[in-house]
Design a protein that fits this description.
The chain is mostly beta strands and about 150 residues long. The chain has two helices and eleven strands. It is globular. The C terminus is likely disordered. Its main location: cytoplasm.
């Protein structure tokens, strides 16, 4: 399948790269199909709308930037996504002109089922995370306490 992107122009992607978000992404309810495009030899991916050339998100592997990142996926969310044992978690990254100001959203990870090719951005309630964690350094405590 050929899709169009702003960054790379036309790209050929495999059907196994297309994830269905039944409810879209927050703020983009009408956009339900996205291609997950890896950026070779980096912990980054691009989530590109299949229909809207101008809609894409930079994703990162949260465990690379925050090895202690963890959350429990609610049963109803796992069931909705049809998740068995395979699950992929990515988080949306906001790049800033000054790289040290770039952030990763740990409060609302994108959860993907690579078997069923379904996905959903899930807001973690009662979690110590927020939407703008520094991308370049893990803080000693997620909640901002210095531990001392």
């Amino acid at each position: 399948m050929i899709i169009e992107t702003l960054s790379w122009g036309k790209l050929e992607i495999d059907e196994e790269q297309i994830y269905h978000f039944s409810k879209g992404l927050p703020g983009f309810d009408e956009e339900t199909d996205f291609a997950l495009i890896p950026m070779a030899e980096t912990p980054f991916w691009v989530l590109q709308s299949v229909k809207n050339i101008g809609l894409s998100f930079l994703l990162g592997d949260p465990f690379v930037f925050y090895p202690t990142f963890e959350f429990e996926l609610p049963d109803d969310e796992a069931e909705e996504l049809g998740i068995g044992k395979d699950v992929v978690v990515r988080c949306i990254i906001t790049l800033k002109e000054q790289l040290d100001q770039s952030t990763i959203n740990l409060l609302a990870p994108v959860v993907l089922n690579p078997t069923g090719l379904s996905g959903k951005q899930i807001v973690l309630h009662k979690a110590p995370y927020h939407t703008k964690h520094s991308l370049l350094q893990e803080q000693s405590a997620i909640d901002g306490k210095d531990g001392g």
